[in-house]
Amino acid sequence: MTTIESNQSNRKYMATGAAIIAVAVAAYGLGRIYPPLGPTEGTIAPADRYVSSQVGEGDVTLGDTSIPKLMQTDAFEVMTKNPNFRTLASHPGFAALAANPQAMSAIAANPNAFTGLAKDPAAFMATVNAAQAVSAAAASANAGQAQAFAAMSNNPAAFAAFGRHPQAFAAIARNPAAFAGFAKNPSAFSAAARNPSAMAAMSRDASAFEALSRDASAMSAITREASAFDAIAKNADAFSGLAKNADALSLSAKAASAFSANLGQANAMNGQVAAAMSQHASAFNAMSLQPKVLEAISSNPSAFAALGRHPQAFAAIARNPAAFAGFAKNPSAFSAAARNPSAMAAMSRDASAFEALSRDASAMSALSRDASAFSAIAKNADAFSALAANAKAFNAAANVNALNAMSANAAAWKAMSANANALASAVNAAQAFNAASAAASLSARGQFNARAMQAMSANPAAVAAMSAQPAAWAAIANNAQALQALSANANAFNALKSMSAFHALAANPSFAAAMGDARFAASLSNQ
Questions:
Q1: What are the tens digits of pLDDT across the range 227-267?
Q2: Whether the Cβ atoms of residue 455 and residue 132 lie closer than 8 Å to each other
Q3: Per-residue pLDDT tens over the stretch 430-484
């Protein structure tokens, strides 16, 4: 890492120039603090487990040296020289946008879902209202729904075809047993769809099936992936629930298609990943807002699952990656150090946590086998340090159930880890599926009206992201300056989206400490 100490001229630049950009950095950083998610929110029936104490709010302190330390990071040096970041941070409405930290991480991760929408305040508010309606239900997606998402992800072309014909799709989902046989005889389905009145399960929706039969592209996809009929039958309860609202059913199919598009060719492993992302949506959301963290964990799932059982020790490593990097090549030295943590400065503050880790034979074995996790953390030091600096965000990402799900399918996650941004987009698709499932359930109870469904259909990715923190998004919807800053800076947000330095820098809570200093604002205005 480039440091102030190693370069005297750089020290001068930092001392005199940092104030010029610090308000921009501080304002945006406040906005990137993670949403207040708990460690098991969004998970389904978590198994009993041993974990050490979680990271508490008191474990995260800024102190008087927080901003100087921030200025020594690679992320700070890279971003302060970036013209897109400077453009974004100098916008007069940016402070109003940044004042809603729970929303800023989602904007940074997927700006296209929000920047265009912000140009229409009424549509933005309608989308927030839809997200509010599905928020609680989306957080409690059950295992059956997760398996339905997996089934859709394994047959994305067929379900995308069904999604274009929601009335026919709903008829199939309402009575899956009547259609299961077509899995082995797709040509029989083609014949039946052309003459739907001859089949009781189709006759009620004859015109819909006739329209499907005339859609050559859809019929071809269904023929190629006829196993979709069997998948629906095996997950009958979940699909029956989705079928209560044809629009929600169609949205769920689109989410599965987007998931598969981001992760490449559909296969059984993708289905397992899909189920995990849907069932542990909150945890994966927290990881995905730092794409390099998600990439590193995906590359070393067994080791991170072990660390997930000891979140306080995990947080200590994430706060100071350089101190632990050497253990990648000498895991036995880590074992020895963990047994005597008081002898190592980076461990001594959390000595009891490391001692507990050292006594967990299974965890230590996993770390020894996959010691490259230490180097993965060090290579993405800014991202892990930023995550560890916010206790609630870290505890959400360190959800042991989500990490165990990744470890159980390690080969799949490792294969998918090469493209961090695509993996993060797949997480958003899983969230969109959960939101659609929630909408179907609420609609059946009369708690999700046509206007809300219209808003969700028009902006599924935005609703999915907003559902995690609807109150924060409502604050933006009610602030004209925040909406203007969002809508006017689409190019800057998109240019910065793929930069890990942007995500890491913006997530550092020391920005919040600088946010209220008027001298920073004055310095920025002089640029």
A1: 999 999 999 999 988 888 889 988 999 999 889 888 875 45
A2: no
A3: 999 999 999 998 998 899 999 999 999 999 999 999 998 899 899 999 999 999 9
Location of structure tokens 């629930």: 241
Kindly report the length of the chain: 527
Residues 6+ apart with CB under 8 A from 259: 149, 153, 156, 270, 274, 277, 426, 429, 430, 433
Contact 209, 203 (CB under 8 A): no
Ramachandran class of 51: left when φ > 0, alpha when ψ lies in -120 to 50, beta otherwise:
beta
Angle between helices 227-234 and 143-154 (to 10 degrees): 180
Given a contact cutoff of 8 angstroms between Cβ atoms, the answer to whether 33 and 509 are in contact is yes
**Tokens 């920047």 map to which residue?**
115
Please give the Cα distance from 507 to 511 (Å, whole number): 8
C-alpha distances (whole Å) from 449 to each of 250, 415, 441, 444 are 16, 41, 12, 10
Note the pTM of the prediction, 2 decimals: 0.78
Q: Tally Cβ neighbours within 10 Å of residue 122.
A: 8
Who contacts 305 (Cβ-Cβ below 8 Å, separation ≥6)?
366, 400, 403, 404, 406, 407
For residue 418, the one-letter residue type is A
The two structure tokens encoding residue 414: 């490792």
Integer Cα distance of 273 and 258 in angstroms: 14
> Tokens representing 251?
């949205």
What is the amino acid identity at position 368?
S
Most confident of the following: 73-87, 90-104, 224-238: 224-238
What are the tokens at 419? 């493209």
Q: Which is nearest to 343 in space by CA: 365, 323, 366?
A: 323
| Amino acid sitting at position 388 | A
C-alpha distance from residue 327 to each of 336, 358, 371 (Å): 11, 14, 7
Tell me the Cα Rg of the chain. Answer: 25
Sequence letter at residue 395: N
